[in-house]
Write a structure and sequence with these properties.
Blueprint: E1 3-4, H1 5-9, H2 19-40, E2 42-43, E3 52-54, H3 60-70, E4 74-76, E5 83-85, E6 104-106, E7 113-114, E8 124-125, E9 129-130, H4 142-145, H5 153-168, H6 185-196, H7 201-210, E10 219-220, E11 226-227, H8 230-234, E12 239-240, E13 243-244, H9 264-275, H10 288-291
Antiparallel strand pairs: 1-3, 2-7, 3-6, 4-5, 8-9, 10-11, 12-13
This protein binds 2-acetamido-2-deoxy-beta-D-glucopyranose (2 copies).
Pfam families: Pkinase
Protein name: Protein kinase domain-containing protein
Keywords: ATP-binding, Kinase, Nucleotide-binding, Serine/threonine-protein kinase, Transferase
């Protein structure tokens, strides 16, 4: 693969891939996600721009690179006699002619979970639900923070939030860290409430019921505290009955105003598309296969 998506983005004006191309990429990524979920029964759980790699535009880039590399700086390790070249993550300017060959692919399955066993696994409850904390901070799904148990739909939330990075080169959520740079679950939830309205009762009830159970193994959180369940891990509880305990942290933002990077004619379709992914309830989110048919991805 040539490079991660965040390097690829830099090659475009304002670091943004033009919308028609971005739509094709989103479609390809959904094909990949559907394959992972339906065929492989894998929850990726770490979707971010660094884990989306773009393929080479043509083979010459690599052969030319090797030729250049042979004339490049190197040193010889005294003990082993081995030649050591400078490390690179950038293969230079794009051959624009070949851009249609550049396909984004989902990479890095280091923290992926396979849900293919009929029996209950360690750390999984009921049929097939993960319970340990997952996902990069910005893209963490509400059921993960609230300790409700998660499945494939956590990837759908993650992918929905990532669309702001893919299309607008910006983060949707802006208060996921506190002043000390630590993950701040209450600030993150407050922002979800601002964008989506309060969470449904069913989710809060599940969260409360699950908070009574401990994980098979305790896990240390970012503060270094050894925690027995999600509520401890993320510093909950966050709700008292159905009332959010930190409603002073709810910013005055609305989802409709989060996509200024799109022209008005595209914005409505985009918001309809992301609302199929950013639902509090995992079971209400569309599958990757269903999302592939959304009108936002249709090219005029
Ligand atoms: C870690 O757990 C402690 C105890 O539950 C909690 O107070 C703290 O907020 C947690 N830290 C993070 C970064 O979530
Ligand atoms: C915040 O919570 C308090 C107490 O429950 C309530 O009186 C107040 O109206 C709430 N504010 C908002 C903005 O929801």
């Amino acid at each position: 693969m040539r490079e991660p998506f965040w390097i690829y983005q830099r090659r475009f004006v304002d670091r943004k891939v033009p919308l028609p191309i971005a739509k094709v990429y989103i479609y390809f990524l959904l094909v990949g996600l559907d394959y992972l979920h339906s065929e492989c029964r894998v929850v990726h759980s770490d979707l971010k721009l660094g884990n989306i790699l773009v393929s080479f535009e043509n083979e010459k880039v690599l052969t030319n690179f090797i030729k250049r590399q042979q004339q490049m700086q190197y040193k010889v390790d005294r003990e082993s006699g081995r030649t050591i070249y400078r490390c690179h993550n950038d293969f230079g300017p794009l051959d624009v002619q070949g851009i249609k060959n550049m396909i984004p692919k989902i990479a890095d399955f280091g923290v992926a979970t396979i849900f293919d066993r009929p029996d209950t696994q360690d750390g999984m409850v009921g049929e097939q639900l993960g319970v340990y904390p997952i996902q990069p901070d910005f893209y963490r799904a509400p059921e993960v923070i609230l300790g409700c148990g998660w499945d494939f739909k956590a990837d759908i939330w993650n992918f929905g939030v990532l669309l702001w990075n893919i299309l607008g080169n910006k983060e949707l959520f802006q208060q996921v860290y506190d002043a000390d740079g630590k993950y701040d679950a209450k600030g993150h939830l407050a922002e979800m409430i601002a964008l989506l309205g309060p969470p449904p009762k069913a989710l809060l009830e599940k969260s409360k019921a699950m908070s009574k159970y401990n994980w098979p193994q305790p896990v240390r959180n970012a503060t270094g505290k050894l925690c027995n369940n999600a509520q401890e891990f993320f510093g909950g509880p966050f709700f008292n009955a159905d009332e959010f305990c930190y409603n002073g942290s709810i910013p005055s933002r609305s989802l409709d105003d989060t996509a200024p990077f799109l022209e008005e004619k595209d914005r409505e379709g985009f918001l309809s598309f992301v609302r199929e992914m950013l639902n509090w309830l995992p079971e209400k989110r569309k599958t990757a296969r269903e999302l592939m048919d959304h009108r936002f991805l249709k090219l005029e």
